Amino acid sequence: MGSGASIRGFSCCWRKQNSFPETDVALVYRFESIAGKTKRLGGWSRRVPSGRPQASSICLDDSRRLEGYNDQSGVRGGSTVNAGTHAEGVPTEGTTSPSRLDGVDRGVDRPRILSGVQPSGKLHLGNYFGAIRQHIQRQDQGDCFYFIADYHALTSLREAEEREKAIAAKNKAYLPRPARQILAENIRDVALDYLALGLDPKKVIFFRQSDVPEVTELAWILSTVTGMGLLERAHSYKDKLAKGITPNVGLFTYPVLMAADILLYRSHLVPVGKDQEQHLEMTRDIAGAFNHAYGEVFPLPQAVFNDTPVVPGTDGQKMSKSYGNTIEIFAEGKALERAVMSIVTDQTPLEAPLDPERCHVFALYKLFATPQEVEEMAARYRAGGFGYGNAKKALLAKIDAYFAPARARRKALERDPGYIEEVLAEGARRARAVARTTLQLVRERLGLLRSPAS
Length: 454
Description:
By secondary structure, this protein is α/β, with parallel strands linked by helices.
């Protein structure tokens, strides 16, 4: 992982296999070397020889405190900060110490993990293996904040409405939905999917982004320390311009709202895909700019990358709703069969050997199969006489069986819509408790009066 831009000093990056399952987390540590001493500019540090950072292994679920730990003495160092919260969302009392350089809550025993998912349509296999699965795996590895990014979805909501109108124009039997219905149903589907797949609302804080209005206030504040040039360099913005999409201000300032999402909960770790790496680096830059201008409030969050390879869609490109090449997580019956059987393959004759490593069907099969099953399938490919049709049928059976328990749970949850709203409302209550604490620290740094609601 790139270390990103630091205001001063230099960066050292090393990799340590930690106790998170199936994850190799790259952590970046920043140092400013002055006469053999170090200052933390974001992350963990230790005393090192002049001019050279000394590599160190940090296990994120170590029994030692996440921050304030003195590596030389084995005891906590620095002043205690009691402005943080634990996952219950109940702020502890007290104030931050101005001597802190990292802005991290020293009262937090576990890393605070945050991630969001945009409700832009039916979730698919790419969403599951790229994000959802690791979100669920991390439930017991930190204080997790997972949100449905409905504010972010507004930047493309009208396009979704236009797509429905285009479908209706070709199919008179299709009834297009208005934008408000599209968004409401997409939010509900995301909540259903996560809960059915195993997210436990007692272990994590799961909420709608728009139910925590503090995020928009923080986004405005952060926009005042964000340079135009930083936003103009955003890959996602430039990509959409290149595709001829007419940009709106929301699309342009998308990274600022994303930064507010992350910093509002003073997150330590952010599971992201490689395509979101730049946005996280921008968040670090924005946090650093605020800390430099007004004093330390925000920790510099670290990216956690998923080691799952890019999930191919039915056309061989990266699986994405924008490409129309997805296999939905909860598709079943004929709909699932149509999607799987439509996967593009080459024209190799049935009797000829096949190369499994060049086959999109095999790439998807590997995500569901055991190592032994993968070896056996590869052997069938290479032996010849197997055919892509047989491979697709094997993949179809794997997908159907893998999601069968979650599919049953989802159907049960659909029959109790009130429960979904209760979960999101409770998650918002807990998230707001944390958000208000952070925003009060921000307001104090800015010299703003205490919020009447706090």
